[in-house]
């Protein structure tokens, strides 16, 4: 994966690399999960819960944040 250091977002940077592999959201999600588990094992994250929404299905959606970053989170309802 290539990173580009720029002060403004350039959409052409994303579309000009014809050799860049395209992943589905699921593929990328599984890759990230595997990479984190391989590097860190079990991970605990500490932060402030923000914007908690509990859906009719029982699933919970929220953000976990600190002073420098925000992670969007999902907790599924166990059946």
Can you characterise this structure?
- The protein has one domain.
- The protein is built from two helices and three strands, in the order ααβββ.
- It has helices at 11-15, 25-40; strands spanning 48-54, 60-65, 70-75.
- Strands 1-2-3 form a three-stranded antiparallel β-sheet, with no helix packed on it.
- The longest helix is centred in the middle third of the chain and has 16 residues, at 25-40.
- The radius of gyration is 17 Å and the shape is extended.
Question: Any key phrases for this structure?
Answer:
single chain; 79 residues; alpha+beta; 24% strand; OB-fold nucleic acid binding domain protein; exodeoxyribonuclease VII activity; Exonuc_VII_L; nucleic acid binding; OB-fold_nuc-bd_dom
Bin the helical content. Answer: 25-40%
Tell me the number of helical segments per DSSP (H or I, 4 or more residues long). Answer: 2
What's the alpha carbon Rg, rounded to whole Å?
17 Å
Give the percentage of residues in beta strands.
15-25%
Q: Name the structural class.
A: alpha+beta
How many separate structural domains?
1
Q: What shape does the CA trace take?
A: extended
Q: What's the average pLDDT?
A: 84
Could you give a short account of the major beta sheet? 3 strands, antiparallel
Stretches with pLDDT under 50, minimum 5 residues: none
Helix and strand element order: HHEEE
Number of strand segments: 3
Amino-to-carboxy terminus distance: 38 Å
Main-sheet strand order equals: 1-2-3
GO molecular function, one term: nucleic acid binding
Protein name: OB-fold nucleic acid binding domain protein
InterPro entries: Exonuc_VII_L, OB-fold_nuc-bd_dom
Domain OB-fold nucleic acid binding: 23-75
């Amino acid at each position: 994966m290539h990173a580009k250091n720029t002060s403004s977002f350039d959409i052409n940077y994303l579309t000009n690399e014809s050799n860049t592999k395209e992943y589905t959201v699921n593929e990328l999600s599984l890759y990230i999960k595997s990479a984190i588990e391989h590097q860190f094992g079990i991970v605990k994250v500490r932060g402030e819960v923000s914007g908690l929404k509990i859906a009719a299905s029982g699933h919970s959606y929220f953000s976990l944040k600190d002073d420098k970053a925000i992670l969007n989170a999902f907790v599924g309802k166990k059946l």
